[in-house]
Design a protein that fits this description.
By secondary structure, the protein is an alpha+beta fold. It has 19 helices and 23 strands. The chain folds into four domains: 257 residues, PAS domain (Beta-Lactamase, 2-Layer Sandwich); 97 residues, Beta-Lactamase, CATH 3.30.450; 83 residues; 156 residues, Heat Shock Protein 90. Strand 6 and strand 7 form a beta hairpin. The structure holds adenosine-5'-diphosphate. The site of adenosine-5'-diphosphate has 22 residues, from helix 18 and helix 19.
């Protein structure tokens, strides 16, 4: 399985920047976190150790100071004056006596005892039953007095729990209750309660032991917690080393002391410590009264250094990442940029611009890659040029081939002979129009292949020969066959194949029908020629008797005078003689082999002669003749008599085609290339429908016996063909007929 780059769509430069950024962030983030965690742990341990030591030191100092206060209380309780007066006060019978004793005792307490200890704020004398016998300054309430008396009754000086301030703005209080013993028998006679100023006690103890935190080490909260959990919070300003002294007014005013209610589920005894996210604390017991001293420190302030460490690591990581990204300029310049150039050049080549190259200015791997790319692009460019040249040559060759093929197709199509190319299986694959009849035969299966052995025979009958045309293995042969009423000669040729595959066949069919018809006509002509010669001899032999008949008939007509009946008979004889003469003349013309006398002949002159010559006949028939010749003379080379004969025949036919009411004949001549064209048009009845194909045949006539010989058109065509032209029927119908005579024009015209 191939591993695909998950960021394959991101450009390399961003990937590199991302990689550097990730490496830096990972290194400094994870490393920084680990380092700061271990530093944090070490710092926490150190802080807790120090706090434990501190709480122990505080507890020891406070304990020592309290011990001193307790012993001073006991000193006061052993004072004889106090003890005597206390006993007397309880035994006094009169108020005046009691008054006196109280005044003496109060003054003694105020003057001789209270000033001795700064920490003491008041002194009270309690009776055995807990009554307040006397208070130096302010009497405690009865409940407090009873509790203190009860504490003192256990035999030794005892410290009270925290007592709340008596008035708004007053101080939280603590008292030491000490039993008063009789001077004589040592029995307990009451209690001495010494009221201690908490601020002076705490600050005095700390100052005396030179305990105090430098403010630079952070805020320290000191808590003195009694056995019932009531807490006296000491403001950090009082615990600082350079804070107010125990006898200052600030301390005496009770500043920074705050009595808090018991805390729920908080262990306060012993040297232990705990940390939460905000607070470090350690506590230690005050031995004298079973209280505990707790030292709290805010975590944020203490851990600032470590927290800074982590963020400093991150900061350094960020700076390094940014620096690394900036340093990417170099890999970008020397690695990514050449790669981008390569990519852009590759795109240009893909788009067809094979001239695309990259700059190579180094010899490292990138440089080698660039050089290889350039070499590849050059090779592609050269190969593409060669390919384009080959393609152009191919296109040229293809065009030539197509032209050749078109030429070949045109040649094949224009062939009068039919051509069919058969493939090796005898299937027609190419043919031309003239091959239609032969193809038809192939399709209807008339030319089924004969067995090969039969085709090998040298002599074959006609039918087998035809069938063997398709046998590609047998010798090519030729056959004559009848197809669709025509006679065709079919040649079969083997089609060689250069790649050695099976050869096909080429069949060429030639239509022999016309040639056979022509041959037949030739034979007919030859027969006619013989007949003509005979006719000429006969005509010649008949001419003399006819001349004699005609002469004697005319003499007879002269001699007959007025005999009308005989005159008519003589006329009949004369007309028939004329008809015979004309027939004989035409026969002689047709069979004439007189050598023609070739001279330049003007068509205009000939047509003029014809018009004049035939005027009597025209006028008798009521026919108009109009001749249209161009101004410039049109000359042909030929025998003038023969050429005139052509137009006489045509005009006579036209006159004869008119009805009794006459008509109009138009003869127009013009030059058409190498020929002179003369159209003879009439508005007669037209050639009869069934006679159109036969009118050029000799002796064909539709006229009555004696009127036509059937030699006019055939003689005229022969003469026209003799002079390089021809005669054809252009149009015919009930509205008229047009014949066209074509004669080769004389080349050099007279100046
Ligand atoms: P002939 O005139 O002696 O019959 P032709 O060879 O001159 O012999 O004419 C052959 C036939 O052609 C005529 O018999 C006639 O039927 C027809 N023909 C020739 N010219 C015309 C014409 N102008 N109009 C109608 N039919 C014509």
């Amino acid at each position: 399985m191939t591993l695909r780059d998950p960021l394959h769509w991101v450009p390399v430069r961003y990937k590199l920047a991302l990689m550097f950024l990730s490496v830096c962030m990972l290194a400094f983030g994870v490393g920084g976190t680990l380092v700061s965690r271990s530093a944090e742990g070490a710092l926490e341990g150190e802080i807790l150790r120090r706090m434990e030591f501190q709480s122990r030191a505080y507890a020891t100092a406070l304990d020592g100071h309290l011990k001193m206060l307790v012993s001073r209380s006991e000193d006061f309780a052993s004072d004889g004056f106090i003890r005597d007066h206390a006993a007397k006060l309880q035994a006094a019978v009169t108020d005046g006596e009691a008054q006196q004793l109280r005044a003496e005792l109060r003054r003694h307490l105020l003057v001789n005892k209270l000033p001795l200890v700064e920490d003491f704020t008041d002194l009270s004398i309690l009776a055995l039953d807990g009554r307040v016998l006397l208070a130096a300054r302010e009497a405690p309430d009865e409940r407090e007095a009873a509790e203190l008396s009860e504490a003192a009754s256990r035999g030794a000086a005892r410290c009270s729990e925290w007592l709340p301030a008596r008035a708004q703005g007053g101080l939280p209080r603590v008292a030491i209750a000490t039993p008063l013993l009789d001077r004589d028998d040592g029995t307990r006679i009451g209690s001495l309660v010494t009221w201690v100023h908490p601020g002076v006690w705490i600050v005095g103890a700390l100052r005396a032991n030179e305990l105090g935190e430098a403010s630079a080490e952070g805020q320290v909260d000191l808590l003195l917690i009694d056995r019932e959990g009531a807490r006296l919070a000491v403001h950090s300003s009082l615990t600082e080393g350079d804070g107010p002294s125990h006898d200052s007014d600030l301390v005496r005013s009770g500043f920074g002391l705050d009595l808090l209610p018991p805390e729920e589920a908080r262990e306060t005894s012993g040297a232990h410590g705990g940390t939460d996210r905000h607070l470090f604390s350690r506590s230690f017991e005050v031995a004298t009264n079973g209280w505990s001293v707790r030292v709290d420190r805010r975590a944020e302030s203490l851990m600032t250094a470590v927290a800074g460490l982590q963020s400093r690591f991150l900061g350094v990581g960020m700076i390094l990442a940014i620096g690394a990204s900036l340093l990417l300029f170099f890999p970008m310049r020397f690695l990514a940029r050449p790669l981008l150039q390569l990519a852009s050049a590759a795109r240009r080549i893909q788009g067809g611009d094979f001239s695309a190259r990259v700059e190579v200015d180094s010899t490292d791997e990138i440089g080698v890659l660039g050089e290889s790319f350039n070499a590849m692009a050059k090779a592609i460019e050269e190969r593409t040029e060669r390919l384009e040249e080959s393609a152009a040559e191919l296109r040229h060759g293809q065009r030539e081939l197509r032209a050749e093929r078109d030429r070949l197709n045109a040649v094949i199509a224009s062939m009068r002979d039919g051509l069919v190319v058969l493939d090796a299986s005898g299937k027609p694959v190419l043919w031309n129009r003239a091959a239609g009849p032969l193809l038809g035969q192939l399709e209807v299966g008339a030319l089924r292949m004969q067995s090969h052995h039969a085709c090998e025979r040298r002599k074959l009958d006609e039918d087998s020969c035809l069938r063997c045309l398709l046998d590609v293995r047998s010798e090519p042969r030729s056959c004559v066959m009848e197809i669709a009423g025509g006679v065709y000669e079919v040649h079969s040729t083997r089609l060689s194949q250069e790649d050695g595959g099976r050869a096909g066949r080429v069949l060429v069919s030639r239509d022999l029908t016309d040639r056979i018809a022509q041959d037949e006509r030739q034979i007919h002509q030859e027969r006619l020629a013989v007949l003509g010669e005979v006719a000429a001899v006969v005509a010649h032999e008949l001419n003399n008797p006819l001349a004699a008949i005609s002469m004697y008939n005319q003499m007879l007509a002269t001699d007959l005078g007025g005999d009308r009946e005989l005159s008519e008979s003589v006329d009949v004889i004369q007309r028939n003689v004329e008809t015979c003469k004309r027939t004989i003349r035409e026969l002689l013309d047709y069979a004439s082999d007189v050598t023609p006398e070739i001279t330049p002949v003007s068509i205009a002159d000939v047509l003029e002669d014809v018009s004049i010559f035939l005027r009597p006949l025209r006028e008798r028939s009521g026919v108009e003749l109009e001749t249209d010749c161009p101004q410039e003379p049109i000359l042909v080379s030929g025998d003038e008599t023969q050429i005139r004969q052509v137009f006489v025949n045509l005009v006579v036919n036209a006159i004869q085609a008119m009805g009794p009411s006459g008509g109009r004949i138009e003869v127009s001549a013009r030059r058409d290339g190498e020929h002179v064209v003369v159209d003879v048009s009439d508005d007669g009845a037209g050639v009869p429908q069934g006679a159109r194909d036969a009118i050029f045949r000799p002796f064909f006539t539709t006229k009555r016996r004696g009127e036509g010989t059937g030699l006019g058109l055939s003689t005229s065509r022969r003469i026209a063909e003799m002079y390089g032209g021809g005669l054809e029927l252009i149009s015919t119908g009930p509205t008229g007929t047009t014949f066209r005579v074509r004669l080769r024009a004389r080349q050099e015209q007279p100046a």
